[in-house]
Amino acid sequence: METKQHSNIEAEMQVVGSLLVENGLCHRMKPLAESDFSDPVIAAIYAEIIRRVQQGGLASAVTMKDWAIAYGLSAGLDEGFMIRLLVNLTASAVMPMTSILAHVDAIAEASQKRALSRALAALSAEMETDATPAEIAARAMVAMQQVLGKSTAGHLRNSAEVGREIVEDFKRDLKPISTGIPLLDQAMGGGMMPGYTYGFIARKKVGKTVLASTISSNLNYSGIRHLFVCGEMGMKQIHQRVLARRAKIDPSKFRGLGSPHDRQWMSDVANVVYDDPGNCLYHNAPGMSFHSLKQGYLEAVCCKKVQVVILDYWQLVGGKGKGQSTAEHLDEVAQWLADTGRRYEVANIIMAQANQEGNTRGSEGLKLACDQAYQIHRPDTSLPGVWLEMEETRYTPWQNIGSEEDHPLQMNPQGPWFQQGAAA
Predict the structure, then answer these.
(1) 146 with 180: CB under 8 angstroms?
(2) 107 DSSP assignment
(3) Which residues pair with 318 in a beta bridge?
(4) SS3 161
(5) Cα–Cα dist 362/289, whole Å
């Protein structure tokens, strides 16, 4: 399936030739991996140039003569071929810098097309296996993500390259995203940062889904497109809470517990529905597998351009691999979410259930993957008071939201939802 059309030999020669003439260009252009070059000999020359420059040496047709001869002999090429190639590459040098950058992009795109061809061939072969269509589709999404999210420089970056990326981030001016809960935003350092992962852990019936749906509704009405993965309650159940909050009605009305003669609430709900800005995408996923989570997450991020993903909740993600323990599976799920969020600059909110001791049930991998993690405390479930204990943070001062004696968040029964201050 991979053909010659997925290569750009001219661009490869011009980029490498330009580097031979001016080594400093490698600090100004987007780095490439040796595997991004379709011609193995040109790829080897590129890798040797980069190695010499990173070690403070000089790379030119003259200084690389001995290396070229040795490489040619090891590859079964005659001595004259490599010397002539170095000279021809030098003659291929192009200026200005904008031309070189365009050639670098062409090389990277051709490399991605070759990788996509290989991925598609592998997926085509899976059609002949016992895998279900849903599993194949999920693997296809993951394979595409791995190709398109691949760093062309591989895993190694020198300090100058990392520094330039940081400067470029300044120019983009990434801003935190408000949760709609001021005290929580303050503890987060201004709100959720794109690419960061936040964990919220609680015993059952304390308020994991209430907090998740509260933040989701706040995001929806503040114009933040996001994904809500419904692993426990169905999307209609969760959205009924949102409608009850916005219409300021008792949520029991949705269960037929209200007076049959009271029809005004239906009109109030309809008004809320028609005014909904539609920035929340629900993924109804009871019994979800890791594959289906990946598929829904990547579709929302790549196709729907969501900025935040909310998972309710972590331990409900099934589909562990053969021979894999539950802890290993959950660790993998948490780390994939954190890694993918960083890659696509999406903020993750992951709800998790705590065991009797207050630790995350099944695995401690969530805390390791999160940039911040909080324990949700509701000392008396018959009362509305809630406080949050910060358990992990990588970038902010330690700061609880309340204490055993002070419960700054209150569960409002109209929803229910969490608010600051006294509940209605």
Answers:
(1) no
(2) H
(3) 289
(4) helix
(5) 16
DSSP 19: H
| Calpha distance 232→118 (Å, rounded) | 37
Residue 353 belongs to what H/E stretch?
strand 347-353
**Looking at residue 418, what DSSP letter applies?**
E
- What is the DSSP secondary-structure string of 255-293? GT-S-TT--HHHHHHHHHHHH----EEEEE-TT-BHHHH
Q: How many CB atoms lie within 10 A of CB 190?
A: 13
In a 13 Å sphere around the CA of 21, the CA atoms on its Cβ side amount to 18
Q: Residues 283, 229: contact at Cβ < 8 Å?
A: yes
Rounded distance, CA 276 to CA 279, Å? 8
State the Cα–Cα distance between residues 45 and 83, nearest whole angstrom: 12
Do residues 215 and 307 touch, judged by C-beta distance below 8 A? no
Helices (H), 65-132: 65-74, 79-91, 97-126
219-241, pLDDT tens digit by residue? 999 999 999 999 888 899 999 99
What are the tens digits of pLDDT across the range 250-289?
Answer: 888 887 655 555 667 788 888 888 888 999 999 988 888 8
The length of the chain is 424
Rounded Cα distance between 419 and 424, Å, is 10
| End-to-end Cα separation, the chain, in angstroms | 64
Could you give the residue ranges of the DSSP H alpha helices within 173-263? 182-187, 208-221, 235-247
327 contacts: CB under 8 Å, gap ≥ 6: 362, 363, 365
Residue that has been written with the tokens 């053969």 in this structure: 322
List of residues 6+ apart from 102 with CB closer than 8 A: none
248: left (phi over 0), alpha (psi -120 to 50) or beta: left
Question: For 354-381, what is each residue's pLDDT tens digit?
Answer: 875 555 655 677 888 999 999 999 988 8
